[in-house]
Every structure is written in structure tokens, then in C-alpha cells.
Amino acid sequence: MIPQIPENPYLLLTPGPLSTSKTVRGAMTRDWCTWDDDYKQIVQKIREELIGLSGGGENYTAVLMQGSGTFAVESVMWSCLKPDSKILVLSNGAYGKRMGKIVQMIGVPHRVLSWEEGQQPDPGQVEEILQTDPAITHIGMVHSETTTGMLNRYEPHARLAEQYGKIFILDAMSSFGGIPLDITAPTVDLLISSANKCIQGVPGFGFVLARKEVLKSCKGNSKSHSLDLYDQWDAMEQDKGKWRFTSPTHTVRAFLQAISELHEEGGISARHERYWANHHSLIKGMAAVDVQPFLQEEDRSPIITAFLEPESPDFSFGVLYEKLKAEGFVIYPGKVSHAATFRIGHIGHVFPEDFERLGAALQKIRFW
């Protein structure tokens, strides 16, 4: 006998995968043929919607790429960095480091400019490098650094890229769809995100919003067959929504439903407000049990918050995790290298009242 799948026993308070609505999950209950026009029309609709959400207009295009968001990041690097390119990677957390590791493994000239976790990237230092190293052709950075929950101020760096004629790459993995931005002001040449983040879909693919002029210049450059961003885009353009290889059809259909629900909520601005309301409710509940955030208020994001572990000898993240899971909440371990932290996300199909319940659960289980 096939066991029945129970309803969700807990909320995912993580930066993705995250808790989704029943209607998003329900959109995955039928099968699709990747060659069929009905399915390809879904893909084309998603591509159009993504450009609309970004404010990109006719100068931009959208490419969907199988796999996790990191696959999409790597596809950009394989496809857009040429042998004579040199990328400056700005890093203040694990995901900036990951971008640096990818370009190192690809073997292209690169430079990683690092700050401590919890420090904003400094435009003055970036400009100094641009003035002294004319070989740099690209600048890459992370928007929402979920290591700490910091929202990096990318705009000054994008403006420097415009000023010095560099291509600007923004990993907006956990921010796109939840934080208002205009991809054209300042110019982001390549923006990378994923289905299972602020648009509140399920895992299975990432996507790249690219300035067409930049993407066209990538033709024939990738040394990876499956991660060739230009070829993926060309296939979707020529066959109107066809992926080169088998696509995650159920995830794709669920993503279209998720976009529809984003519009129903009032768009990105309304979702942004809800995420901030979640954050404020969370901060209040944590303060009531003497747990403090890692970052100062001005650097926090509405995406995820890192908290300092209580100094009590009785505290254990493993114990906290299991006790909260039993109360219906799953949280995230820490990733800050120089401080003991844990993280709680506030994106997904979750609401301020959920964080009020979390606060009550913390009061109930407190053991430190």
C-alpha cells in the first residue's frame, strides 16, 4: 500500500526552498509534454512576466536554466566571461565566496575583493581598483547575502560599472520578487535568481534576466555544453519556449501559478511590505527571549535574519532546532565564520501571525 503524504507538518523559515501555498503545490498535479505548444506557451508567459517584474523592457530578455540557482550563476560565468575577460567579485559572505570559487574553477582572470561578514562593500575601494586595473571587464556581487541577512547596497557599484564601461552581474537569488528594483536604473546587465525564492515557487530551475546586447556577445563562448546560457536562450527564442534539454515541467507550471499569486497580493511592493512585517514580528519575538540579531538594523533585509546564539552554556542550536520543529517551525543553522549564529527566514507563504506563533513557541520551549 502506498503511504499517504501528510499535510505540511511545519513551516520552512528558510531562504529557500520555502513554504508555498496549496495552490502553487496544486499546480503540479498534472503532467506536461515539453514539446507541446501548451507547455511552451507557459514558458513564454513566464519569460514575459519576469521581464515585466524587472522593469527591463524590450532591451532585456529572460532565460530559464535547469537546476538550482547556483547552476544559473555558473551558466552566466561560463557563458559571459571570455579568455580576455577579468571579473572583479565583491564578497562579504558565503555566496560572494561561491561566486569567486566558480570563476576560479572556470579559470578566467579574476580578482576577489572581500569584506568581513556584516560589512557593506565599499564603493570607494571598488572605484580605486577600477582606476588602477583597466583589465577588469565585469563586476559581480550578491544582492541579498543570506549568510548574515545583509542586504547589500548594489546600486553604487552598478553605477560605477556604468561609469567605467564594465558589465555588471547581480546575484539577486533571494531578493528578486521580494524587493523592488529597476534593472535599468542603474543598469544591471545580468540578474540571476531562482524559482524557489521570493516569487514563492518550488525548486527546479533558476533564471537570468539579461541585456540582449550583452547576451548576444556570449555566442560560442561557453566551454560547458549544458550551462551554455546563449544556446539556451537561442533555443527558447527560435522554438518559442522550448528548452534544449528536459525541463522541470511541474516546477515550471507551479512557477506560473506563483507569479499569478504575486500579482494577486499586489505585486512586489506589497510582498516586500509583508516580508518586512514578518521580520519585525520575528525581531519582537526573539527579543522577548533575549536573542539579538547579528546585524545592525540599517543593514538587515526582509529576507532572512541571523541571530547571535545566547551565551548561556545551556544553549544548543540542535536542541533549539528539534524543539521548534516539534512546534511546527524549521529554521536554519548559522554560516557566519567568526560568530556563533543561527538564521530564521521570513520569505515564502508565511505571515506576521506565523511569527507571533513562533514567538509564543519560543517562550514555551526556552531552555537557556
Automatic annotation (TrEMBL):
GO terms for molecular function: 2-aminoethylphosphonate-pyruvate transaminase activity. The modification N6-(pyridoxal phosphate)lysine is found at K197. It comes from the Bacteria. GO terms for biological process: organic phosphonate catabolic process. It catalyses: (2-aminoethyl)phosphonate + pyruvate = phosphonoacetaldehyde + L-alanine. Gene3D superfamilies: Aspartate Aminotransferase, domain 1, Type I PLP-dependent aspartate aminotransferase-like (Major domain). Its cofactor is pyridoxal 5'-phosphate. Residues 25-305 form the Aminotransferase class V domain. Its EC number is 2.6.1.37. Belongs to the class-V pyridoxal-phosphate-dependent aminotransferase family. PhnW subfamily. Homodimer. This is 2-aminoethylphosphonate--pyruvate transaminase. It comes from Lunatimonas lonarensis.
